[in-house]
Amino acid sequence: MTIPLPYLTASVPGIGGTIRSTPDDFQVKERPLYLPCGEGEHLYLQITKRGLGTPQLVLHLSSVLGIKARAIGVAGLKDSNAVTTQMLSLQGVKPETLARLRTDDRILAVEVLGRHRNRLRTGHHAGNEFRLVIRQVSPDAGERVSVVLDELVRRGVPHYFGPQRQGRKGENYLLGAALLVDGARRNKLSRSKRLWYLHAYQAHLFNRIVAARIDRIDRLLSGDWAMKVANGACFPVEDPVQEQPRADAFEISPTGPLFGSRASWATGEAGAIEQEAVAELGTTREALTAAAKACGFRGERRALRVPLAGLDWSLQDRTLTLSFALPPGGYATNVLRELMKNEQNLPG
Question: What is the residue-averaged pLDDT of the chain?
Fold first, then answer.
């Protein structure tokens, strides 16, 4: 099983409550990274749907429009038990063909955005906007909500990977660990399956490093690699004291490794934390780098925290309504878990 992940706001009791009593309690809107240029073979749509995950939507569009699933591009995967708005690209589809696509209780709205030269690919979005409703929170939740959210705005939201990566039993990373050292077993799987389990192992290691630094998630250490929040560029931190004001202003953030053949490891104090987390998994950084090279993935650095933007909330009759935005890769569940501290009631 995966390890329990510590809270950034552990000193503040949770408000409890339940989420997703209905799909309308969990609303997500994808923020486009760019809009179509007006010409090209890919038709861009924005679709709002209820109770329909992205893979199911792709299959539905493929069937209704008579196109292959691989001709449909998406920027991100959206949950089924929610109301979600996301962009898609359709290769070789004429606008008149869209007349076959009807709105109903699952497909709520379809908007044609225009044509573009390139397919929409994973990560081609600027993040997500959330509107969440938590019901039956504790009677004295108001003060706790204010303290927790103020702390998350000031220091950042822990950038833990969500439990979806690890499957129902929470053990996908174990198969990923086995695949790293067993080439014959790797070769029996498709590339997508192989990478899914290897990325689960990456995520498990990264979560352990965030957990080890949770009390200093916004502090730069010697040997750190920092990420520029504006563009995702990374650089080695030579003087953490000199750079700390930029971290306090959320211009930069400390990072952890998503190991790979070309991903950098930290040195100094930050590197010692990473090395200890790797050793606890029974391996070494050199072994992980070599295995990633054999498996064919490069890896990267990932921020230990993400900014909480566009925050607005209200509390009425033990119902908390919460709106905020997160950058790509940010999990709303990391905000919810800091507030609720009630893991079994969080969406998986």
Answer: 94
Percent of the chain residues topping a pLDDT of 70: 98
| Sign of the dihedral defined by the CA atoms of residues 146, 151, 152, 158, in that order | negative
pTM tops 0.85: yes
Residue 29 three-state SS: strand
pLDDT of residue 112: 93
Helix (H) or strand (E) holding 315, with range, is strand 309-316
Alpha-carbon gap, residue 190 to 192, rounded angstroms: 5
CA-closest candidate to residue 126, choices 47, 227, 28, 30: 30
Q: Does the pLDDT of residue 313 top 90, yes or no? A: yes
224 flagged as catalytic = no
Residue of 79, 218, 224, 317 marked active site? 79
- Among 207, 163, 217, 161, smallest CA distance to 8 is for 217
Bridge partner residues of 319 (DSSP): 135, 316
Look-up: residue for tokens 């509390």? Answer: 315
Measured between alpha carbons, how far apart are the two ends of the chain, in Å? 15
Q: Where are the extended beta strands (E) located within 14-167?
A: 18-19, 26-32, 42-50, 72-74, 83-91, 107-116, 125-135, 157-158
